[in-house]
Structure formats: C-alpha cells, structure tokens
Amino acid sequence: MAETKNASFDELINSEKPVLVDFSAVWCGPCQMMAPILKELKTRVGEDAVIIKVDVDKNRKLAMDYRIQGVPTLMVFQKGEVKWGQSGVVQVTPLEHILKQYMPAKA
C-alpha cells in the first residue's frame, strides 16, 4: 500500500482499475485494524485493483475535499469518480466483492 501526495492522487483515481483509498490516521485504533485486512485484500485482488492509504493528518486538504468526517473511511474510485464509500472497519470479503464489481472482466 502506498502513501500518496495530491498530484499523483488525481492520477491514481483516474485509473481504469478500481482504486480503494483508505483514509486513516496513525492514532486511530480501527485504522490499525484495517492494515491486515487490506493486506489480505491485496493478495486476493492482485494487480486488478489498487489499494492506497492516505493519512488524513498529512493530507488535510485531500481529506477536506472528500469530506472525510471520521477514520477509517474507505472509498472506491474509478475513472475519477467515487463509486463507493463507507466509514469504519470493513472486513476483507465484503471489500473484495465491492472491488470485483468494478474490475474489468477477464478474457
């Protein structure tokens, strides 16, 4: 999972692949619970989706732009659009199902 700066964030979320963004903070307990879940998710989806973590304390403008009220907040972007979002801890299986809805069909 990559930390990101604003310029590359816009490039990332404009991807054809779904991009799961974990808006989080180091002081947040539930955010720390998301780390192993997202690691497992990455092993399940591989290169078909991008998963990034955004520290809301280091990226305040980005957090304000997307109206992040609490952490963790997860959002799925594709081609620059927000496709899905939810605050709180989400388990790996529901996240996998959500991402698969936006993955291109395999030939």
TrEMBL record:
GO terms for biological process: cell redox homeostasis. InterPro entries: Thioredoxin, Thioredoxin-like_sf, Thioredoxin_CS, Thioredoxin_domain. Disulfide bonds join 28-31. The active site is at 28 (nucleophile), 31 (nucleophile). GO terms for molecular function: protein-disulfide reductase activity. Residues 1-104 form the Thioredoxin domain. SUPFAM superfamilies: Thioredoxin-like. GO terms for cellular component: cytosol. The keyword Transit peptide does not apply. Belongs to the thioredoxin family. PANTHER family: GEO12009P1. This is Thioredoxin. It comes from Fulvivirga sedimenti.
